Amino acid sequence: MEEGELPWLLVNEVGGIRGILHSHVPFLKKHFHLITMKEFLENRKDVGKMVQAIYLWWHKPVIDKELLQSLPNLKVIANSGVGMDHLDLKLIASFGVKMANAPRAVSSTTADTGMALLLASARRLVEVHNISISPSMDYCEADILGVKVAGATLGIIGMGRIGYKIAVRAKAFEMNILYHNRTRRKVHEEQAVGATYCKKIDSLLQQADFVMLVVSLTPQTHKLIGKRELELMKPTATLINISRGAVVDQEALVAALQTGVIRAAALDVTSPEPLPRDHALLKLKNVIITPHLGIKTDKATYMITEEAVENILAALNGLPLPSEVLPS
Ligand SMILES: O=C(O)C(=O)CO
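Above: the input record for the complex with 3-hydroxypyruvic acid. Below: its predicted structure, written as tokens.
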């Protein structure tokens, strides 16, 4: 690379379903020479050795051994979100490549998504919207009775940054808050949001009216919520998932929703995404599904790009990465 030339940043595409947003391009171009996967694949040899960084947008491009081998000067991969379960962290590290995520940018907006799903499910917003726009607009009162949120108990499984921000929001909605986390929060943090620690998930499941999943997907959390756990929940309880689809045994969830083991589910994440159009979950009235809305607001996505740039520039300048992720 010539002195003064911008470092080369590989992105999947610009625009489209899996491309970075057009509105982020001017900012990225201030710092990098942008190159898309299509341009890279057309001229692998010449472009490959120029690329020093990758910005992953919604898990794309796929990082595999072949790609890593074709990028001999790659220094860093920045992810446009907090979950890194789509990456083989050990493989990437074995190429001497650093990795970063974007925890600062994502937490408030993802917490908002969780609360939006909780409220929408409690008050059956999708069902009543459909009633409201139907030609007959006919309903009896029982059709629209929801669940009272104030005074209800929310069980948060995963009390990291996002989980904590959900607790902040739930407190404002006058909910009682239980949480489970690998490590207990400090007492003053618990007190600030009025949250009670449950060492055992089972006790949280038995008490909560709403259970919100906010854990990362790891081998330990894969199918964390299965038939047994669903059966521990109250028949009046609602499951909300904003983590990853694979944290729930989806077949068990379908059965639980069909047979009244639990009241309802609100899912921002499924496995796979999107679900096949004939999937049983899409046919249930007591389910709300959103398309991994997570962080998707204009401001939060822009902040993610800013956080990614900050991490990439740190890595390229040999400085500590503000949000480095190490293989466990
Ligand atoms: O940050 C992430 O990994 C998300 O999935 C946000 O929804």
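Notes for the reader.
The chain has a mean pLDDT of 96.
The pocket of 3-hydroxypyruvic acid is lined by residues 81-83, 106, 110, 292, 294-295 (CB under 6 Å).
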